[in-house]
Amino acid sequence: MDWSEFQVLIVVADGLIGYDRGQGRCRVTNSMQQAVFRVDASVQMGMGHLTRCLTLANALAERGAKSWFLLRSHAAGLVALVEGNGHDVRLLPDPPAESRPETAEAGMYAHWLPTTWQRDAEQTSQAMDRIGAADWLIVDHYALDFRWESACRRDVLKILAIDDLADRQHDCDILLDQNLVREMRARYRDRVAETSMQLLGPRYALLRPDFAQQRRMLTSRSGEIGRILVCYGGSDPTNETAKAVRAIGSLGIPSVEVDVIVGLSNPHTDSIMRLCSGLSGARVYRGANNIAELMRRADLSIGAGGVMSWERCCLGLPAVVVDIAENQVGALTALADAGAALYLGSATEVTVEMFAEGLLSLFDSAPRVRTMGEAAFGLVDGEGRNRVVARMCD
Questions:
Q1: Which one of 110, 213, 271, 367 is separated from 195 by 20 to 30 angstroms, measured CA to CA?
Q2: Which residues share a beta bridge with 273?
């Protein structure tokens, strides 16, 4: 039999592998060519939405797909961050402040848009027409729902909606909610079509690959606390960082080292640096790009909910947490129920003294701290980005 007359085509999760007779080797052709992300970030919104979208875009890029980010023009200061990751940006123009519409009846997060959802959908569609044919539209925005998604639909295009709230309907092919919440399987029962694929839980957490890498380098923690990491994400508008630093300082334990991370959008950086200068063993990192490494080296973390919850879990890091937004309550409650965190309550109600009391209870119980870390470690393995991409390429 003359095998030169045959061509072999193998279907795999990421695309197609064809045997190239001329080169005598397999070549990979990714079935996905282009994706468009509609997401925003600000001091009010935080950086979590943009961070997880960048993580997904980077994972798609590894498979040869090009990504475009559509941001409102108020997020222009973040263009360099997106472009630095190798992606293109198109800014959607905001209307003048005096002409912005009333949004009182459009949902509690409607004010995250400076315009109507209809105008946002129109601008998004126009931008997509200029970009050209895309395989996926990924939307991660609390102010947008099934109406916006339906308005942006077109032939071939598939929609991935990233949500945490389960408070509105979606017109999407895939719904991703990476949170740990009670009765997770029932959350979107009446909010997406039966044909929509639901990717639910921290198994699908969109974490950067360095977290999985640092996870492989972990050594067992004893539960003794010698190093604390304080991080409230990219913005921290109410300066919970300062509250945590004051609580640590009030314990009067000079042997404890403290790593304090302030995000690039944090409006309190100068005052935090002054506060930390008076705390022995404290170091401040602004816009740190080695958060995964700092988490691996820490014995305890202080922070809030959101994406960082799953980053901490991936590295088995026990945490003392507060919620800084109502949408974080469910996940933090579930983490506490799982024994992976000490949840103190809402940041608006937790005082420096309450923080100090919670910390002191952990200093006095190494077995409890060790058990918290083990519980966290079992929740997230750091491979969620690859699982999501595999589903998108099915």
A1: 110
A2: none
